[in-house]
From TrEMBL, chain A:
Gene Ontology MF, one: pyruvate dehydrogenase (acetyl-transferring) activity
GO biological process: pyruvate decarboxylation to acetyl-CoA
Record's keyword annotation contains Protein biosynthesis: no
Cofactor(s), names only, from the UniProt record: thiamine diphosphate
Dehydrogenase E1 component domain span: 24-313
Cross-referenced CDD domains: TPP_E1_PDC_ADC_BCADC
Domain of life where this protein originates: Bacteria
Amino-acid biosynthesis recorded as keyword: no
Organism, scientific name: Novosphingobium taihuense
Catalytic activity: N(6)-[(R)-lipoyl]-L-lysyl-[protein] + pyruvate + H(+) = N(6)-[(R)-S(8)-acetyldihydrolipoyl]-L-lysyl-[protein] + CO2
Protein name: Pyruvate dehydrogenase E1 component alpha subunit
From TrEMBL, chain B:
Enzyme class of the recorded protein, top EC level: oxidoreductase
Domain Transketolase-like pyrimidine-binding intervals: 15-192
Alphabetical list of SUPFAM superfamilies matching this protein: Thiamin diphosphate-binding fold (THDP-binding), TK C-terminal domain-like
Single GO molecular function: pyruvate dehydrogenase (acetyl-transferring) activity
Name of the protein in question: Pyruvate dehydrogenase E1 component beta subunit
Keyword Oxidoreductase carried by entry: yes
Requisite cofactors: thiamine diphosphate
CDD domains associated with the record: TPP_PYR_E1-PDHc-beta_like
Length: 327, 339
């Protein structure tokens, strides 16, 4: 697929999202290492292009069900940074009042409906949002993201079958980063690819280079167009690579060093940046100035989070049910 | 004094729990365009459900709102949760309670927790209807009472009816509740005529409110579902022996009506807690513990519990009969409390 298949303005916009997503991950790791925020963190570094493209194409009313390694998906969909960081810090000003944390971030105004910590569980719920879209006679689409590890859990298969027999506007976005927790994709996934499984559910299954903006853009646009037109679900297998271990800080010796260093040398975000400059889509000064703005936004969000109040123990009584319950 | 002692017995009752549930569906779907339902076999081409509760519904309200599903409990529950997040009011049928085990992740990790984990930004107003109960010789995987698992889960309410009026009123109230509710229905008592008239469309049973189904002064029986039917029979039989039994049907198992239970326990001083579910670690243990915490020293006897045996539900009839208390077993447990 030719890389010039998308226009320059779109490519620049994709880069801006990717740069923000990348910078946010870098800051998260820094903040954890500095001890300012203690959290279990699943770095998505290396997977930025996929959600940047999705965010470029999706509307606010399109819904997203994502997973614990999903902050990149959420920023791509427009999660505001202050509410995000305050939630990571467990503060009352977080989007979930500190009750959800990094694995359960939620922000309905941008369609970010569910973040699950259970592998594969984004998919069955996404079908319900898709069913509701059709009941509403809306052309909005329902996205679920998951990893290659989730392709082997039953919930995904139940959901793909239901989406197909009900012809739902669900888009199954598998981000194949080649590792399911600590285990390699080849070792535990039969058949060599995930996209091929779509054939068994009579839906299109497409494997794309998720790190290539143009390829990703074309494949995702096509899936969205199909869903909006009422033509049913699509399974996209977006090939990518996770630069760090399953959990940030784990012993990632299970990741072959050569594979990791090759992937990091091909880092898709700086690659896109270099291309924007080489193709004269943006200048070094323009990008540097944008990147400085991003850092300032993140500075502001982190400061807001750290200055925000903690929840009170009494907050446990609220949001269990709509009405308060006895402690 | 029995609450029904003065009721005229001019004719035999004709209304079943089944008919009451079917009417509840009709009324809900007529009144609320946001009502949708899904489950195995429940649309008309598949027969309107194994108990025919939803028969006619898909023809009348359309097959987009009334959907048969694959045998995929996780997909069923997930679709219900997702649709509820977008403002619909799904009633999801998980045919038999044992099949909820296949969908536990969706129910326990998602339906029950999304409101809290999102800090109240989202909610999951769904009803899960499920049938169960021993009596059909279906053995160990088709008739368990698993209410304690759900009662132990913050964020989901658990109900069970033992009369047609309550079945109707609980389904209507569960449907209108802003949070997930699991409604446990007793399959073997579905078909028994118990009432004279179907409830009218305005009838509701508020969640969290127990019913005193027999008033009495000697012993309180706290119970629900099929065991409330047995407890009423035991109370009626013991009235002939001069024993006055108060039957409290919880109707909502979680959150349960502590006020009504404690008032009755205070009055009689003797409490039997009865359920069909396995006695050990069951709902009865929670109720007994709270009565003890609140009324220690005011009771005439320690709270007594009866329930299902600590085994899988057996197949063979004599074993199945011995598995959970019938009215006779309840009557002797009540007599024990008076010794």
């Amino acid at each position: 697929m030719p890389s010039n298949a998308i226009d320059n303005a779109t490519l620049l916009s994709i880069y801006k999202r990717a740069a923000l997503i990348k910078a946010n991950d870098e800051r998260a790791r820094k903040v954890i290492l500095s001890g300012q925020i203690a959290m279990v963190y699943y770095s998505y570094r290396g997977q930025e292009i996929i959600p940047s493209v999705m965010g470029e194409i999706l509307r606010d009313d399109d819904t997203l069900c994502t997973i614990y390694r999903g902050i990149h998906d959420m920023i791509g969909k427009g999660f505001p940074l202050r509410e995000l960081w305050a939630e990571l810090a467990g503060r009352r000003t977080g989007s979930c009042k500190g009750k959800g944390g990094p694995m359960h971030l939620t922000y309905p105004p941008r369609g970010i409906m569910v973040t699950t910590g259970i592998v594969g569980s984004s998919a069955p719920i996404a079908n319900g949002l898709a069913w509701a879209a059709r009941l509403d006679q809306s052309d909005r689409v329902s996205i679920c993201t998951f990893g290659d590890g989730a392709s082997n859990i039953g919930a995904i298969h139940e959901a793909m079958n239901l989406a197909s027999v009900w012809k739902l506007p669900t888009i199954f976005v598998c981000q194949n980063n080649l590792f399911a927790e600590h285990t390699t994709f080849e070792k535990m996934t039969a058949g060599g690819n995930i996209a091929g499984r779509a054939a068994g559910y009579a839906m299109p299954g497409v494997r794309v280079n998720g790190n290539d903006p143009a390829e990703m853009y074309l494949a995702f646009s096509e899936a969205v167009a199909r869903a909006r037109a009422g033509e049913g679900p699509t399974l996209l297998e977006c090939m990518t690579f996770r630069f760090f271990g399953h959990t940030f800080g784990d012993d990632d010796s299970y990741m072959p060093k050569e594979q990791k260093s090759a992937a990091m040398a091909a880092d898709p975000v700086p690659a896109l940046r270099a291309r924007l400059i080489a193709d004269r889509i943006a200048t070094e000064d323009e990008l540097a100035s944008f990147e400085a703005e991003i850092e300032a936004q993140i500075d502001d969000a982190v400061a807001f989070a750290l200055e925000s109040p903690w929840p009170e123990p009494d907050d446990l009584r609220f949001d269990v049910f709509e009405k308060e319950i006895a402690a | 004094m029995s609450a029904t002692a003065t009721a005229p017995v001019a004719k035999k009752p004709t209304v079943t729990i089944l008919a009451a549930l079917a009417k509840a569906y009709q009324d809900i779907f007529s009144e609320d365009p946001k009502a949708i339902t899904l489950g195995e076999d429940l649309a008309d081409p598949e027969g309107g459900g194994i108990a025919k509760i939803t028969k006619g519904l898909s023809t009348k309200f359309g097959d987009e709102r009334v959907r048969s599903t694959p045998i995929s409990e996780q997909a069923i529950m997930g679709a219900a949760i997702g649709a509820s997040l977008a403002g619909y009011r799904p009633i999801a049928e998980i045919m038999l309670m044992n099949f909820t085990t296949v969908a536990m992740d969706m129910i326990v990790n998602h339906a029950a927790k999304l409101r809290f984990m999102s800090g109240g930004q989202t909610s999951v107003p769904i009803v899960i209807r499920t049938m169960t109960g021993l009596g059909f010789g279906s053995g160990g995987q088709h008739c368990d009472y698993l209410e304690a698992w759900f009662a132990h889960t913050p964020g989901i309410k658990v109900c069970a009816a033992s009369t047609p009026e309550d079945a109707y009123g609980l389904l209507r109230a569960a449907y209108e509740d802003p949070d997930p509710v699991i409604l446990i229905e007793n399959l073997p008592t579905y078909f028994a005529p118990m009432s004279f008239e179907l409830p009218d469309a305005g009838h509701r049973v508020p969640l969290g409110k127990a019913a005193i189904q027999r008033e009495g002064t000697d012993v309180t029986v706290v119970t629900y579902a099929r065991m409330a039917v047995n407890a009423r029979a035991a109370a009626d039989a013991l009235a002939g022996e001069g024993i006055s039994v108060e039957v409290v049907d919880l109707r909502t198992i979680a959150p349960w009506d502590r006020e009504t239970v404690l008032a009755s326990a205070r009055k009689t001083g003797r409490v039997l807690v009865a359920h069909e579910a396995v006695k050990q670690h069951g709902v009865g243990a929670e109720i007994a513990a709270v009565i003890n915490e609140e009324l220690f020293g005011q009771l005439k006897k320690p709270v007594k519990r009866v329930g299902g045996a600590f085994s899988a539900v057996p197949y063979s009839k004599p074993l199945e009969n011995a598995y959970a208390p019938d009215a006779d077993v309840l009557a002797s447990a009540i007599r024990d409390l008076l010794r």
